[in-house]
Specification:
Blueprint lengths: L3 H4 L3 H9 L9 H5 L11 E5 L4 H13 L17 H11 L3 E5 L14 H20 L5 E6 L7 H8 L5 E7 L10 H16 L4 E4 L8 H11 L8 E3 L10 H15 L8 E4 L22 H15 L4 E2 L10 H11 L4 H9 L17
Parallel strand pairs: 1-2, 2-3, 3-4, 4-5, 5-6, 6-7, 7-8
Helix pairs in contact: 5-12, 8-9, 9-10, 10-11
Length: 369
């Protein structure tokens, strides 16, 4: 299944389009039994999945009308409503015990298609409720992160509300969709304040950082020093291995900077992990727009990325499919086992890794009450 951010033909739209999350799962007996003795291990959790209510489907239709060329070549599955039951069904097919639902409620703050503030807040709340209710109905198979645009007026109200609601484990920030520019000091301050508020509310974060703004070493360092530092010991998961899918030099630069921050025990890195959604499977050399100065093959880029993982420590990486962006989890992880150049022992370790918010002993804001 195609995804706009991976196929966009325009560099400035590429990150925002993935930001739309297009065509856009710990112990349960049946999935565990599905792993026959001697079979390849499967992940304990899929750390990056998406469902969507009819509200999102209709909103994507409005976006398509406003920006038709962005949607060229995208599957009609983009507009299909997906439920929590659909997510559990895919987890069962893959033999995966648990899935993390990342709400797309932040999309109603997408600046290119404006809404009145009251209507934006209403739709964001409704989409987040759709995800949280799906998790509550899943008999502990799913956990839900609500989606918030941290630059909208309702951001702190939405954070506060969900920190008190059963079933809400954390917050998904899609900073590409939200128009974040690390070079904008006012935005950096506002985002840092939101991250600090999430820390106080005990609401873990999943953050997609890369967007249309320049993804430079200086800008990544600004995010680490001025924003991530405000998270304290809060679990933070960086999506797409530090980039926005695939591997290019800026993604490798970001990986290196996260590794250096972890090594020096920088503030905000105690419970920092990176998810590997869409990192090893999307070959940037096949995109319509590519870096003409890049001469390495994708195999070489994947090897460089895995070398960076080993330098940081594989315990800092969690498996994730970004379902339904590419393939369903069963097929996705079968491909990833081959595409990611790790040893059998390293793959077993990755399959057993859980983000801190899924480990025994962690209590999110809503579960603390």
């Amino acid at each position: 299944m195609s995804i706009i951010g991976y196929r966009a033909a325009r560099p400035v739209i590429a990150a925002i389009a993935h930001a739309m999350l297009i065509a856009v799962a710990l112990c349960w007996t049946a999935p565990a039994a599905a792993q026959a003795e001697g079979a390849d291990p499967v992940p304990l959790a899929d750390h990056h999945m998406h469902i969507q209510s009819p509200l999102i489907s209709a909103w994507l239709g409005e976006m398509q009308k406003a920006m038709p060329t962005v949607f060229d070549g995208i599957s009609d599955d983009l507009y299909a409503t997906r439920s929590g039951a659909d997510a559990v069904r895919e987890l069962d097919r893959a033999g995966i015990p648990k899935g993390v639902l990342l709400s797309m409620g932040y999309m109603f703050g997408f600046p290119a298609v404006p809404l009145e503030p009251e209507e934006r807040a209403r739709r964001m709340r409704a989409e987040n409720r759709f995800n949280v209710d799906a998790a509550l109905a899943s008999h502990d198979r799913l956990v839900a992160f609500v989606g918030i645009n941290p630059f909208q007026p309702n951001a702190l109200d939405e954070l506060g509300y969900w920190s008190r609601q059963p079933g809400a484990w954390g917050v998904k920030l899609h900073l590409g969709n939200s128009g974040f520019d690390p070079g904008n000091r006012a935005q950096v301050r506002k985002l840092g304040a939101f991250v600090a508020a999430a820390n106080r509310a005990h609401m873990p974060l999943v953050i997609h950082l890369r967007g249309a703004a320049p993804f430079t070493v200086a800008n990544i360092a600004t995010f680490i020093d001025k924003v991530l530092s405000r998270a304290g010991d809060l679990p933070v998961q960086i999506a797409h291995g530090g980039g926005y899918g695939g591997i290019d030099q800026p993604t490798l630069d970001a990986l290196d900077l996260y590794g250096k921050a972890i090594a020096r025990k920088a503030p905000g890195t105690k419970n920092l992990v990176l998810d590997l959604s869409a990192v090893a499977q999307f070959d940037p050399s096949k995109a319509p727009i590519k870096d003409p100065s890049e001469t390495r093959s994708f195999d070489e880029m994947r090897a460089a990325y895995v070398a960076g993982m080993r330098k940081i420590g594989l315990d800092r990486f969690v498996l994730a499919s970004d379902w339904p962006a590419l393939e369903p989890p069963a097929e996705y992880f079968a491909i990833e086992r081959t595409a990611l150049p790790v040893t059998d022992a390293e793959w077993r370790q990755l399959c057993g890794n859980l983000a801190p918010y899924l480990r025994a002993g962690w209590v999110s804001g809503s579960r603390a009450r």
